[in-house]
Amino acid sequence: MGSETRPLIPERFVDVPSQRLYYLSLGCLLAGQSIPHHAPSRRSLLYKAIKAFDIVQSLFASGDPSFYAYGKKWFCLDFAYVALLSQLRIPRLTYSKAIVALQILSIWFLDGLLFGAISLHLGSSAPTSGGYQGIQSSFLSTSPENALTRFAERPDLPVTPEEFRIADVFSPSSLLSLFSDAHRGDQHLLGQHTVRMSPISTAHLNPDALTFCLSPPSHSVLVPILVNNTIPANVRYAFTPLTYIEGQSGTGRIDHIELSGKDLKAIEQARLEGLQSVRAHSTDDEYEDDEDETPSSSDSQLQKTQSLAHIRVSKPGTVRLERILDSSGVAARLAHPLEVTVVPCPTAYYTDDFITQPANAVRCQGDTSGVDLTIDIRGIPPLSLRWSKYVDGKKESFLVEGIEDNNPASRSHADSRNIARTSSKTPQILKVPLSFSVESLGRVTFVLESVIDGMGNIVPLDQGVTSETLQAEVALNSKTARSLNILRRPNISFRNCGPGNPVSLLFCSDALLSLQVTDSDPLDAPWNVDVKFDPSEDGKSRGRSVKPWQDTFQTEKSSLSFSASAAGEYTILGIRGKWCEGDVLSPETCKVVEKPMPTAEIEWKRIHECSGDTGVSASLIFHGTPPFQVYYRTQRDKEDPRDLFKTFTSSRGELTLQPEHSGHYFYTFLHLSDANYKKVELKGPSIDQVVHPLAAADFVPTAGNGRSKRMVNSCSGNMVDIEVDLRGTAPWNLELDIVGPRTTDRLEIHDIKSSPTRIQVPIPSKIDKEGGNFDVTLVSVEDSYGCKRSISVPGVSVNVRRVKPTAKFYIKNGIRQLTILEDDETQLPLRLTGDGPWTVKYRRAEEPESVQSVTLRSQNDYIRVKSKGLYELLEVSDSQCPGFVVTEENGYYVDWVPRPSARLDPQTPSTFEAYNRSHILPPICQGHDDHVELDLRGRPPFQIMYNIAMKDESGVGTIVLDQPTFSSIQPRTRFQLHTSSSGRKYYEVKQVGDAAYPLHKHKSAVIPRSERLVFEQEVLPKPSAKFKDDNRMSFCLSDVLSSRDPTSSDGTILLEGTPPFQLHLSIKNLAASKVRLETVEVRDKVWKLDIPSYHFTSIGPYQVTIETIHDSSQCEQAELDPLRRSIWIDVAETAAIIPLDKKKDFCVHDVTQFQLEGTPPWTIGYRVNGKSYTQEAKTSPWSIVQHQSGEFIVSSVAHQQKMCKAAIANLRMNIHPLPSALVGHGKRIYQDIHEGDQAEILFTLIGEPPFSFTYQRAEPSPKKGGKPGKVLETHTVSGVMTHEYSVFSALEGILEPIHGISVY
Questions:
Q1: Cα 1030 to Cα 986: distance, rounded to the nearest angstrom
Q2: What are phi and psi of 151, to 5 degrees?
Q3: Sign of CA dihedral 130, 133, 134, 139
Q4: Contact 627, 646 (CB under 8 A)
Q5: What pLDDT digit, counting tens, does each position of 975-987 carry?
Q6: ∠768-771-775 over CA atoms, to 5°?
Q7: pLDDT tens across 746-796, in order?
Q8: Mean per-residue pLDDT over the chain, rounded
Q9: Are 634 and 644 in contact (CB under 8 A)?
Q10: Would you tell me which of 87, 356, 383, 682 could form a disulfide with 403, CB atoms 3.0–4.6 Å apart?
Q11: Of the candidates 713, 753, 760, 714, which has an alpha carbon nearest to the alpha carbon of residue 738?
Q12: By the 8 A CB rule, do 94 and 83 touch?
């Protein structure tokens, strides 16, 4: 630690804490002021006893020369104390030089004040209104008793300028006066009259904005009235029937009805009893009546000052509340709206249409006639209907809005000048059609759930229908529910029979034909099937008498069989169920062919293998249906014969018999069987032989056939190519048999030099002409050595097709046209002949270059397409042959269901703007109901999604406010316009849905912008006006009602609407109870009060109220804000000051009192001994304590923020004992009044008239009997000759006298 920072006294003598203690204790002993410091917690406030003793001594030495000696002594002592402290360098008490200098100056300034060396002239320009001056004047007053008493009561009175010293406060006289009563407590001014504004009683009809309707069995409703701060004793209302039309007779009349307090109590008692009864007997009910539920819910939410009264209405009409009085006859303020309309409850039910009959409650799938229901709807339009559709228990809900009478005669379009439009509240009876397409299968139920009228009344119709009740088959209410069954259409075709697959008919027997019924519905049974028969030409040629016939067969099963006894063609003409007509599928024809008895051609040959006979062989050629069984007998010598048989799978067979033993053998054929006949007697040749290798040939097998019989197809030409594999030594000679159904032709081919070789086999002429099957078999082969050998190998079956495959579109009722939804896929039915699979080529006529190819596997297959247009079949081929398309039935037209659209009714008044393709509607006033009529095209019900937009804040672009959707069941619907807010509204129809294109299934299919319906409308704002603020304005008597301060916003009215405005004002003079109406034309939206023709003729409060406002749009005005509708104006007399007494001589410290006229604050100009001063006074009378001798002159007075200034002649007054002024005979009186009423305040004056007295009105205390609050106004009454005087006040506050003067 450096020498400069060490304490001056070394710590070995006195440690640092002790040094601090000793020096601070010395300071406490010496002085009596607070030594300031800038290091918190380093030096405390030091109260020193020695200086305090000298201060007391100096107070008693005032005016003595030694008075200033005390100050000089303490100037030196305090300087030495602080300077010595800085030299001792005691830690924590060491400061910089600047701090030490500031400490010395601060202590010297306080010493100067305490010992009188420094004086403060605080009242030179604006004397204080309280503090030590008033206290000092009170304490030192030597004036007569009354003056001293009055001054002691008002310690806040201003004084004339005088030097101020702190020492004066502690003078002996001041100290002695501390023990006296300085409270006002003047027994001459007693009593208080408290005027309290009772809360405004209000009444609100239907506070919850409920809707009411009349329905059986109650036929009455209770309309609630919410009252606040009052108990209604009389209610008067007007009842207007719904049919009433002003000025037309026979439409009813307006009834004015009054309800007394007794009537209201009876209604309330009946309501409570009914409510208790309902709660006691319907605890399990799901719904309660509206008139019972609403009051109970409202009662629980009422405030302490609120209560409910009810009006019972038993017939439809409009109830308008006119007046509500309490027991004292005071009317309650009625809140808007004042009206409520009671209408008949809406109803909706199905009419007695044909679906109610069980025979008509069935539809067939794809029925183009649809389902047409008629609903009888009654109520106030526009009506809304909520209904649902159950399909096999699955629910779909729908809402239809805007149901009303669309008769053009009942609609009227307002022209562009008639902006206000109204809607009728007369109930309408409407017949609304409801159409549905037959698409879904199963049981479909249409249920009416609820109906909503134009007033907002919601009436549930059928809430008991659910998926569970439908599955349980609970009986439905026929008024609100309709059900029908949608059945599948049956299909029928032959089974196991068709083109190329005929049914075989045997001699002397019948063939069984089977028909298959598919996609049928059990409810549609039984089915009637029409069948036609045409006999074949073979039957006629054989002489059999067979006639064509047509018959109907009935079946209740999915299959049908009948017997065919004759060969020919059986054709299905159609199928009809109990309800639905079905379709005939392919194969629709079945050919029955009579099978001939099997026969055989037998040729015996001896087996001679170039060296001798080794056996015999029989070449058999069969005619019939394979497989064949040949029964034969063999016998050797004299042995017993043996019966054998052998099976052949083809039409030619070789039976080789080479016994192992020699002998004489005898061979005979017995019987022949085929697939149709068994053991037909065979009269063939016999052979006997006495029993004593080489060239070979075979057909070239195809892949996968192996050694099985090979199949060859022929579609055209009279020759067929067959490959043969020859073995042995070439050249060969080959013999083949061509085996037809009845004939066999031998074909010999010589000098075959190569193997394998292709042989062209001619087709039998009959088969070549009609088509069919024939076999080619190898008979023998001879090699180059002349050794000929018979061949027995599987032959080749040749299938000759002369009936080419065909393709055509299926036609029903001669129509080849289909209508589908846009972008949906559909199936075009085909009918194909031939052997599948088929390859079909087709195209759309609108795109001829684009040819499509499809492979089909069923005779009744489909082509799947999506685009609309004419589809044409081009080519067809089956698995074997190319075919042809039936020219007359090769086309099928597919069309799209047109999408729904919307357009404005041509009668709608509008102007079309080609630039943006917008229809400009006439302007409408804000809040007025307006609509346009839309013509909708499509299948109802419709859904319309639209954008509503308005210009943004910049005014350049637009912002979308909402994108709502509404429904309509009618092709002409009402489109409600949005008029709740002002501005230019733009409407754009974005999407239109109908029964075919519902919006929930086609969300992405929006209308192109260039094709959308667009219309716009200017919604004019309702004119309104309000004061910018509620500041009270001040004027002087005889002033013109015009704003004085251009920079102030007081009296500024803000207007909204379309200029120019017609502003109707009322100016109410409360003192004179006069009202003057003024009409002002304003061309701007901001206007300051400026009515040069109006002069203030009396003092007191005035109220300027905005009564009505009109603008150039002729719209009715908006509801004015009650808080900004009026302002108050205080009108004061021209500022004046009146001495309360005529005395001219006053003593120093006497109180000189003046009455100020006008509105506070006042500015008083006066001169004391020729020197001018000003004083501001906030209350009247104005009193001033005279502290200087000499001449006191009042020169001027002004009020109202230094307005209404008046020059005053010199005046001086003498003070006499005060008279007494009592309010309410000196007691506290409390009186409650309503707004607009006046209270009478009675003043009792004691003394000798004439009197002048002053009273003030102060803010009332929150607690009864509490101290008054801020003084609001002061008034003086002069020249009163009686001992009682009444003052009337319409304002709230505590009124009490503050001054009184009698004749002296």
A1: 38
A2: -70, -35
A3: positive
A4: no
A5: 989 988 888 999 9
A6: 80
A7: 889 999 888 889 998 898 888 888 788 889 999 998 877 677 888 888 889
A8: 80
A9: yes
A10: 383
A11: 760
A12: no
